[in-house]
Design brief:
CATH class: Mainly Beta
Number of strands: 10
Keywords: Hydrolase, Signal
Strand order of the largest sheet: 1-2-3-4-9-10-8-7
Protein name: Class F sortase
CATH topology: Sortase, Chain: A
Distance between the termini: 29 Å
Radius of gyration: 16 Å
Number of domains: 1
Shape: globular
Strand content: 25-35%
């Protein structure tokens, strides 16, 4: 990953799931207890079965060019009552941040990473936690997911793919390991991201990111 790429992704992590409009409603400020962190790290570092382990840089400005990409269009997480439309998003050219859909009941798939058909890498979906004007976001209860919970991501090919949660972690936005969560190598996995931790009223944003990792079930 180049320094330019890391800079862009760092800005994305800082802005992911945070509305630019002034007002966010404080969600639970107590840090979520991390579970499965070691397994999440193993998934990121291990090559998929039958595939070598060359690291592929995350590039913010180019789509993967290796065949048909299947974008997720719908996300279902029964445990936390989520049924959300998934939009393909990139980086906002003006703010250099992850361009999460403005409607808090929708979530965004990072279209410069792997699609649902990929046999390697991290499929990243990010969503808002909440908004003072719109209320609770699709990922308001993301921090409640636990190991073993299941979810379904449906692609634009109509196929519903089932995943199982293996990890839930919370990081300061300045400390999130971007190489791990936006990688195109390692075992196939789904990465869900939102904001969490204490809310800074002056800066009008949350301090942390909540990251949930799920694997094909």
């Amino acid at each position: 990953m180049t320094l330019r790429d890391r800079g862009a992704l760092a800005a994305m992590a800082a802005g992911v799931a945070a509305l630019t409009a002034a007002a966010l409603v404080a969600c639970g400020s107590q840090p979520a207890e991390n579970v499965g962190a070691e397994q999440a790290n193993t998934l990121a570092s291990a090559p998929p079965a039958g595939v070598g382990a060359p690291s592929v840089a995350v590039t913010a400005g180019a789509l993967p060019g290796d065949g048909r990409t299947v974008p997720p269009v719908r996300l279902l997480i029964p445990t936390i009552d989520v049924t959300a439309t998934v939009n393909a998003v990139g980086i906002n050219e003006r703010t250099n941040e992850f361009e999460v859909p403005p409607s808090v009941d929708q979530v965004g798939w990072y279209r410069y990473g792997p699609g649902l058909e990929a046999n390697a890498g991290s499929v990243v979906i990010a969503g808002h936690v909440d908004s003072a004007k719109q209320g609770r976001g699709a990922f308001f209860r993301l921090r409640d997911l636990d190991e073993g919970d299941t979810l379904t991501a449906t692609g634009d090919d109509g196929e519903a793919r089932r995943y199982r949660v293996v990890a839930r972690e919370e990081y300061r936005k300045t400390k999130i390991p971007l190489d791990r969560y936006f990688a195109r190598d390692g075992k196939p996995r789904l990465t869900l991201i939102t904001c969490g931790g204490p809310f800074d009223a002056k800066a009008r944003k949350y301090r942390d990111n909540i990251v949930v990792t799920a694997v094909p079930d």
